[in-house]
């Protein structure tokens, strides 16, 4: 009996250089099928969009609707297998997404202190990373043969771009845009600035950050067929309070945003209203504690609030 595939990303395994990846210099389609654990017949189906994805609309935190393309059934297993191969490859120090012991918080912490900061992000990052970029990644960086690179580029994309709801999307989008990130890193080094990347959020900090630096950043992004989001591109002065990947930076201190403060306040209101009703409190308390514990990594004072919730004794 065939074992059911585990559809979880295994980030605990040791990372290796890109040249040690099983995908590196893969020039045989037969070996590719073996690596992905699929048959010729399954490969024919995998390169098609039809019936391989569930497509639906999802309302984001900003209230806007976005289209999600989520691989299903066997295709989901294939994407998971490829994602597990890609996340084992060592990435540059500036990347904070998809890495052990890294997060949006470590991304923000890289820019602590009183210095000028530039924040920007790529508009529709996954959708604007087309199949041609995926093909070039497997062909030029992974050194696969053209037929293997072509097959992989079809397996990994939906309607000509990286899907928005796959486990594969984040690591593949980074490597498919490695040329752009490499150019941006070289620019930051040239101007003695620090750069960090969290998925599609790019942050620079240093005394050389100015309008000319921003203009060059935009040109690099545009030359790589992307667009810097105009509303999310901003230069902060040294003493400004900055918001970087959802974390407030005030000098050397990290704080939570006003929006997060309001959510905590409302969560406490809801909890206090039902904390003596075990059935209702059992639904609300875990959510409140989850929010407090997660945000305490930004603001340690929230640990005391979490303790007050866990130590509360129901009144009979």
Descriptive overview:
It is a single chain. With 316 residues, the chain is an alpha+beta fold. Among the domains are: 113 residues, no CATH class; 53 residues, no CATH class. It is 42% helix and 13% strand. It is built from twelve helices and nine strands. Strands 4-5-3-6 form a four-stranded antiparallel sheet. Strands 7-8-9 form a three-stranded antiparallel sheet. Strand 7 and strand 8 form a beta hairpin. Helix 5 packs antiparallel against helix 6, helix 5 packs across helix 7 and helix 8 packs antiparallel against helix 9. The longest helix is centred in the C-terminal third of the chain and has 18 residues. The radius of gyration is 22 Å and the shape is globular.
Could you list some keywords that capture this structure?
3-stranded antiparallel β-sheet, alpha+beta, 316 residues, disordered N terminus
Number of strands: 9
Q: Quickly give the structural class.
A: alpha+beta
Helix and strand succession?
A: HHEEHHEHHHHEEHEEEEHHH
Number of helices: 12
- Percent in strands: 5-15%
What integer is the average pLDDT?
93
Q: Supply Rg.
A: 22 Å
**Sheet bearing the most strands, described?**
4 strands, antiparallel
Give the termini distance in whole angstroms.
Answer: 54 Å
Outline: globular
Stretches with pLDDT under 50, minimum 5 residues: 1-6
Please estimate the helix content.
40-55%
Order of strands, main sheet, comes to 4-5-3-6
